[in-house]
Amino acid sequence: MIQLNNLNNNPNIAQLAQAGPYIVFEHQKDLSVSPQSAISSYYMHEMNVRKRQVLCILNGNGVKTQAGAMQWTAGNVDASSDIKGVGDFIGKAFKGAATGESTAKPVYHGNGYLMLEPTYNHIILENVENWENGLVLDDGMFLACDAGLTEKIVARSNVSSALLGGKGLFNLSLIGKGVAVLESPVPREELVEIVLQDDVVKIDGNMAIAWSGSLRFTVEKSTKSLVGSAVSGEGLVNVYRGTGRILLAPTIADV
To answer: Residue 67 maps to which CATH number?
Structure first.
């Protein structure tokens, strides 16, 4: 039997969200600061720059994480690789090189707890089956997910998307039933969810952090002519067409 004290009942640790086997905690203040870092830590807290962690509850289920994300485990918890042979390793190495994710993602299974490393990013829990044809992620968004979800590489719809869209040639897509844990540069409260029904969305900048696999992503001129694009000041825009959803971070610094 395992009992976790000073976690749920810690006044300095707030529970932000829970879905599936995941609980998101936020450290309200950094209590282990030095006199030299106290001022910066104070203003970080005031501006919502706080450490957040994900506790994964294992009851015979499995959790797949980004490599190096584990902080500690408690109970009868075992870790294994999701690589099933040489051919699978080559395929996952290609996926990792294409999407920027780790080649081998450890899978933790058993009965007990798995705590992930703290991060200053915001944590978002998404039910993958609610996304049409899977959930496509922007680079660096993946933190963890249910082990039963399938990973798939999604290629850009055309070469211009790869060269001009600011999102690379491939993206990681999660498919199936389960919950995905995402690291976001902005909190969930600032994300705009756009729902499309046989329609189109054009975004000036790299602000879409996740979208439905059913959407077709291309990069196009903002107007029909180069002269018009120059006059409008917009140039090229990211275009999403079809039926599905987009998570948009309108406050992200587009660099």
So the answer is: 3.60.160.10
